[in-house]
Design brief:
Transcriptional regulator, RpiR family; DNA-binding; SIS_dom_sf; transcription regulation; WH-like_DNA-bd_sf; alpha/beta
Length: 312
Amino acid sequence: MGQDSGKTNDSIDKIPSFSEVQEGSQHILRQLIDIRNTLPKKQKKLCEFLVDNYQLIGILTLEDLAKKAGVGTTTVLRLIRHIGYDSYSAIKKEIQNESVATPSAWWYLQESFTNKEQNKHSLSQVGEESVRALNSTVTSSFKKDFDKAIHLLLNSEKVYILGLRSSKGLGEYFGHLLEEFFPRVVQLSHDIEFVFDRIVRATKKETLILIDNAPFTTIGLETVKLCHERGIPVILITDHLSSPAASFSSITLKTQASQKQYTVVPTIFLLETIIVELGRKTSNESIANLRRVSEILEEKNITQPFTFYPSD
């Protein structure tokens, strides 16, 4: 009986390392890093773009990848052959397989419980890893996609926000802050059963923001598919490009997942940055809206008086 108990504990305690979970993955990325300084100018430009965004190969067409990287399709094909692949479809398939092999959010959560560095307080360990993930998130291409997303939101008649399961709290938090000064917000995260009813009434001049961190949801995917079919722009916020919704999104903002712990810090950072940027772009209207809300809340004795406002 004691032996059986020992076996059970061994199976529970034995958690694979990150490298074991992703054995053999990201070797394309390593190849790109190794050769980038030896390449001709255009191939080097493409290579540096892919080092920041190598999983984009898994979701973009050859033409789209060339356009995003600012090179010709011939340059893409030359680089692909240089690292040992006969065609774009071959390397694309391998990247997609790597994405499928990406550990789930629950693996990261389990890893957090066992990843204890010697002589380091948990506050320091978690904080340092969160900072690393944040720094890895903000790349040059990420900034460009962020700016495109802001432009799209500013020109949208309505902005629908959807977060489900582990991303539901993020969607609710984001929507609450945004609707305080940006009145075009429609929160979908509260009433999942009415998501499709509302999207059916949406127009091409409106935008859906889907927050879709792993593990991914079927409802999120089907919502994005419906938007895609109806020509409604979608901004996808995710921590893994293996999100099935990425194939149907207009803009994908991918935050960096931690390799050591489960964290949504990069996602919160992105959501709050969107809020700040939209507030800046609409500052006159936004400040006026915030003041009106604050005055009403104080008048109804819902909140305590708060008199700190930016100077006029």
